[in-house]
Design a protein that fits this description.
Chain A: One of its GO terms (molecular function) is protein-membrane adaptor activity. The complex is a heterodimer. By secondary structure, chain A is α+β, with helices and mostly antiparallel strands. Chain A is built from 3 helices and 28 strands. Chain A has a domain of 297 residues: Methylamine Dehydrogenase, Chain H (7 Propeller). The chains are: A alpha+beta, B alpha+beta.
């Protein structure tokens, strides 16, 4: 089929020549002509617009030209003149306007300043009025306060005057009373002397009579029967003597010796030595009459010993039981109620009656061992304990009325006055002064070591404190100041409960050491007066001075108690 | 060497994609009557070979009428669609010929060199002085469509006694014309392929529809069968041409014409669709695949120039 091929080739060739070569060119050419025609159209439109605008312009020019008419130049001149005038006017007006605006600006500034001033003035005014109001208020309140204070002052003044009057009156009364007391005292002493003398004389007479009697009887007996009646007489005389003595004792048991009757002497030797109890002795105390000694120790009993002053003998009178543990301290009441107070390590204090030896009260409430207890009054007891509290007990209610929290173990306490103010010595080296009205310490005194015992004198002016640094300190209570320190080379404080005492007239201080010696210092010069040794064999736990000052009793750990005297 | 697998479809497709660059230039006397400052530029168009000029006459007139905008109402100028006529080398162009045919006929004879030098084909547009004697006025689109359908029916009458075209619906006729106008190859050949079928138990058309054109002469159309039954062979293009020329000379003799047609094929160049097919190509094939869209083989015979 090569004819087909030929035809096809020819067709392709023809197409190439006729179509392909010219197709693109014709297309582009047509596009160009289209663009060209559109541009022509736009051009003609714009020419038309230009023509119309030109036409309008020429019309306008024609109009403007035609309006001027023939006298164009004159018109122009007049117009120019008018124009110049108008310009001048405008200039002047502008200048005036400038000036006016300047004035306006300055005036507005002035106004602003005035406004500001006014505003600040108003502010100040407000502040000042506020201050004024507040000041007035303060003034009012101050005046009120002043009037109140004046009233108070007046009342106080009145009270003061009244008190002053009362005071002067009381002073006068006191003077009178003092005078009368002095007079009475003198009379009493004279009378007592007389009485004593009379008694002595009577006794002497009585003795003389008795002796004469005896002599007579002896002579009679000699004549009759010598032996049988003699012994009877002896017994009767001894009985009568003891009866007399007992009568004296009973009488004396109700009497505390007078102050002036004290005659403190420094003992020189041991008079009586006796064993009391089975175990250690911790406390020894004289009855205020001086005729009874109470000892207490680890045998849980309080032994009451009778002191026979004339023949210097000590006899056990009775034993008080009821404690469940070691007795740590003993106290007698000073108000003739005949009560004895014992505190022990069984956390309780007990009160016995001396006449009937009956356990009156048991005061429990402490949480630990009770180290010390004292009668404040006959119905008020103060006790100090290892549980770091002090308790005040009322014997009428049998209740603890106050508990003072001391913060440290109380080793010893003394009653400062009858209202319940106490002084206590503690393990933490402090002596605390307690106020009767509130539960806080009035004052605290710091020492160098733990305080083991306190002892106060009768006038409540001097306090003797024994401390673990092997010293005794004498403290003056008006200023709470240590005025004397007593020590000795051999004096060693062995335990926390060593007791030291002042002599009844505060001339001497006495304490026992751990080697068995008893030391006596002079309180005025602080020097050791006497050392009583060689009698005790172990630690001297407690010492007590006889209320009349003639004897010292000391007890040691090894059950021995010794009475020292002249 | 030659690839025998060339499909007939390739050839028909190549045929369909034919384009001619044509340049339309306004005539001088019409140019002088242009009332715009600019003279119109020539109009270049790529036109399909098997299309007809009346199809684009609207476009040509619209393009040139813009230059006469102001004077359309002036009757003396006669600027009118009806007055538009096309001319090539002072030959008014007949509007009922396909464009490719006109081009082959008129340009091929003008020079001995290849026809490519005549491109783009410059046609002069006249808007006045319509040659009443030589040309019928350009019609509207509907007339061209009617002419096309008539030609088509004539072709089918020759091929199948008009059976196939008569059986086709009006819709198919419309589709043929519209796809021709809109340049739709597939749509056209969907219907056209029916017209290329055989009837009456024949393997060929009854008669081949063809026209032979020679310059300055009316076209020749004869009855010619593509198959020689007696000699049992397919007839070629050469046979057709020979038969036609001889028949024509005989007719001239019978009519006592003074001058006779030259019936020696050697003296002529045979151009169909702008190409010179081999003369031994079977005519049946040419009729089926190488016809114009109106199913006719328009064959141009160009006399070889005396050198």
């Amino acid at each position: 089929m090569e004819w087909k091929q030929k035809i096809f080739n020819q067709l392709q060739e023809r197409n190439r020549q006729e179509r392909d070569v010219y197709a693109e060119i014709v297309k582009h050419y047509n596009r160009l002509t289209e663009n060209y025609s559109t541009i022509l159209v736009r051009c003609t439109d714009q020419e038309r617009d230009i023509l119309t605008l030109r036409q309008e312009n020429t019309d306008l020019q024609k109009n403007s030209v035609s309006v001027a008419g023939l006298p164009v130049n004159d018109k122009i001149k007049t117009l120019e003149n008018d124009y110049m005038k108008a310009k001048d006017e405008i200039l002047t007006l502008l200048r005036e306007r400038g000036d006016m605006t300047k004035e306006v600006i300055s005036l507005s500034r002035l106004v602003k300043e005035r406004d500001e001033k006014l505003y600040s003035e108003q502010n100040r005014n407000q502040i000042l009025t506020k201050e004024n109001v507040s000041l007035r208020q303060r003034l009012e309140s101050a005046e009120d306060q002043l009037s109140a204070l004046k009233k108070v002052n007046e009342t106080i003044h009145d009270e003061f005057q009244a008190l002053q009057l009362a005071y002067t009156q009381l002073e006068e009364r006191q003077k009178e009373l003092d005078a009368t007391i002095a007079v009475l005292r003198q009379r009493m002493t004279e009378k007592i002397e007389k009485k004593c003398n009379a008694l002595d004389e009577e006794v002497k007479l009585h003795e003389k009579r008795m002796e004469e009697d005896v002599k007579r009887k002896l002579e009679e007996a000699k004549s009759d029967f010598m032996t049988s009646t003699l012994s009877n007489l002896m017994t009767s005389t001894t009985a009568s003597i003891t009866h007399l003595r007992n009568a004296n004792l009973d009488g004396k048991a109700h009497l505390t010796p007078t102050i002036d009757f004290m005659k403190v002497i420094i003992p020189k030797k041991a008079i009586v030595k006796w064993d009391c109890g089975d175990n250690e002795l911790h406390a020894i105390q004289f009855h205020p009459s001086g005729s009874l000694i109470a000892t207490g120790g680890s045998d849980r009993k309080i032994h009451i010993w009778e002191l026979n002053a004339h023949n210097n003998q000590v006899q056990q009178v009775y034993v008080l039981t009821g404690n469940n543990s070691t007795v740590t301290a003993i106290d007698f009441d000073n108000e003739n109620a005949n009560l004895i107070l014992g505190c022990s390590e069984d956390f309780a204090c007990r009160v016995w009656g001396l006449g009937d030896q009956r356990l009156r009260h048991t005061l429990t409430g402490h949480g630990a061992k009770v180290f010390c207890a004292k009668f404040v009054t006959a119905t008020l007891i103060a006790s100090g304990s290892q549980d770091r509290t002090l308790k005040l007990w009322d014997l009428q209610n049998r209740q603890c009325v106050r508990t003072l929290f001391a913060g440290s173990k109380c080793h010893d306490l003394v009653a400062h006055d009858a209202s319940g103010s106490l002084i206590s010595g503690h393990f933490d080296k402090k002596i605390r002064f307690w106020d009767a009205r509130n539960d806080s310490t009035k004052c605290e005194l710091q020492l160098q070591a733990a305080v083991t015992s306190l002892s106060i004198n009768r006038e409540k002016q001097l306090l003797l404190a024994c401390s673990r640094d092997d010293t005794l300190k004498l403290i003056e209570l008006r200023e709470n100041r240590v005025i004397q320190t007593f020590s000795h080379d051999d004096f060693k404080v062995a335990s926390d409960t060593i007791k030291a005492v002042l002599s009844p007239d505060c001339a001497y201080a006495c304490a026992g050491g751990n080697d068995g010696s008893v030391f006596i210092w002079n309180t005025t010069n602080g020097k050791i007066e006497k050392v009583l040794n060689k009698e005790h064999s172990s630690i001297v736990n407690a010492v007590a001075w006889h209320p009349e000052g003639r004897f010292i009793a000391s007890c040691e750990k090894q059950r021995r108690a010794i009475l020292w005297g002249e | 060497m030659s690839n025998s697998s060339i499909d007939d479809k390739d050839i028909t497709r190549e045929l369909w994609q034919s384009r001619l660059p044509i340049c339309f230039i306004l005539s001088d006397e019409d140019m002088s009557k242009v009332n715009r400052s600019e003279s119109p530029e020539p109009l270049y168009l790529m036109l399909s070979r098997h299309s007809y000029f009346p199809c684009i006459i609207e476009k040509i007139f619209r393009y040139y009428s813009t230059y006469y905008k102001g004077n359309l109402n002036d009757q003396t100028n006669n600027i009118n669609l009806n007055n538009l006529w096309l001319e090539y080398e002072s030959i008014p162009l007949k509007w009922h010929y396909p464009i490719g045919l006109l081009y082959d006929l008129y340009t091929s004879s003008l020079s001995s060199s290849s026809s490519a030098s005549h491109l783009p084909w410059q046609i002069i547009v006249h808007l006045s002085k319509f040659p009443e004697n030589e040309l019928i006025r350009f019609p509207d689109i509907e007339s061209i469509e009617a002419h096309y359908m008539t030609t088509l029916k004539e072709a089918d009458a020759l091929k199948h006694k008009g059976q196939i075209i008569g059986d086709m619906q009006k819709r198919d006729h419309k589709q043929l014309w519209n796809s021709l106008l809109q340049d739709k190859y597939e749509a056209f050949w969907n219907i056209n392929i029916k017209l290329m079928s055989y009837t009456d138990n024949l393997q060929y058309f009854r008669y081949i529809p063809f026209r032979i054109y020679i310059l300055d002469k009316p076209f020749m159309q004869k009855l010619f069968s593509p198959y020689n039954i007696e000699q049992n062979k397919w007839l070629t293009l050469y046979d057709l041409l020979q038969y036609t020329l001889n028949h024509e000379v005989q007719c001239e003799k019978l009519a006592n014409e003074k001058k006779f047609l030259n019936n020696n094929i050697e003296n002529y160049r045979v151009i169909i669709h702008g190409v010179q097919p081999p003369l031994h190509s079977p005519i049946q094939w040419l009729s089926e695949y190488f016809s114009y869209p109106d199913n006719f083989l328009h064959i141009c015979l160009i006399e070889n120039q005396m050198r």
